[in-house]
Design goal:
CATH architecture of the largest domain: 3-Layer(aba) Sandwich
Strand content: 35-45%
CATH class of the largest domain: Alpha Beta
Distance between the termini: 48 Å
CATH superfamily of the largest domain: Nucleotide-binding domain of ferredoxin-NADP reductase (FNR) module
Number of domains: 2
Strand order of the largest sheet: 11-10-9-8-12-13-16
Shape: globular
């Protein structure tokens, strides 16, 4: 059974819950990449695509800081959510060694998720590497709502094309690219995106681009979206300390609708931002 601690409210007024939830599944789906499922009916009930959890990765006082992890998938009927992550340091290494039945201390759901306009009929989803983590949940939700999705996924090589089978089960419109040409389109996923946009006659009024991945990739996605006049949203990543907007350690440079530059917090103002909102490379 999940054991609940404190409750807060996020910017939208929905609950932010702290609780201990048992690990019920764990799989290494690629070298150093893990998919972990936890039983958390309370958080699962309120989670939205694009939101994240702040996870205490160890069982002792170290590491002190939690790790932000995107919510990869939810099963509301079973009260189960999944987290996809790559081992990149001490914290994620500790998390990868957690055993079935052990509790994870979670805080969430946190942040602003994807906001899909009511008139959207087609979604173009662009994932780079581990960027698939916040986008799979979104793809599930869009399919449930009857929105057609075209999923473009890029990776360095064939072995890093994550969750391909699950994505193919969601949509027949899956295209992949690899930097080394070992599978699919030979090149960057942004090159695949540009080719797709030039080939397809998309209605900008009913199409939305959603993307997550390395920041250089997101900058190119933003540029292409502007060039072709298609609105979009991106999920940003930053290291976080509190995850609740208090420490100001996860800011990203943005511009307002009036073109005024300001810093916004990824943990509470994001992690999902409008494509035209984020200032890249300035």
């Amino acid at each position: 059974m999940s054991r609940e601690g404190f409750r807060l409210k996020n910017n939208e007024g929905s609950p932010v819950i702290q609780q201990k939830a048992p690990v019920i599944t764990k799989e290494e789906i690629a070298a150093g990449v893990f998919l972990v499922g936890v039983k958390s009916p309370q958080i699962t009930m309120h989670a939205q695509p694009g939101q994240f959890l702040h996870v205490r990765v160890g069982q002792g006082p170290e590491p002190l800081l939690r790790r932000p992890l995107s919510i990869f998938q939810v099963d509301r009927k079973r009260g189960v959510l999944s987290l996809l992550f790559r081992v990149a340091g001490k914290g994620t290494n500790l998390l990868s060694r957690r055993r079935l039945g052990e509790d994870l201390d979670l805080v969430g759901p946190l942040g602003q998720g994807f906001d899909v306009p009511s008139g959207t009929r087609t979604a173009l989803i662009v994932a780079g590497g581990l960027g698939v983590a916040p986008l799979f949940f979104l793809a599930q939700d869009l399919v449930r709502r009857g929105i057609s999705i075209h999923f473009l996924m890029g990776a360095r090589c064939q072995d890093q094309l994550l969750c391909r089978d699950q994505l193919q089960a969601l949509s027949s419109h899956l295209q992949v690219s690899t930097d080394d040409g070992s599978d699919g389109f030979p090149g960057l996923v942004t090159q695949l995106l540009e080719e797709f946009l030039r080939r397809e006659n998309l209605d900008s009024g009913s199409t939305l681009i959603c993307s997550a991945g390395p920041e250089a990739m997101l900058a190119k996605v933003a540029s292409l979206a502007c060039q072709f006049g298609i609105p979009g949203q991106i999920s940003m990543e930053r290291n976080m300390a509190c995850g609740l907007g208090a420490c100001l350690g996860c800011v990203v440079l943005c511009r307002s609708r009036e073109r005024v530059q300001t810093y916004r917090r990824v943990c509470v103002d994001g992690p999902v931002f409008r494509l035209e909102e984020v200032v890249f490379g300035e």
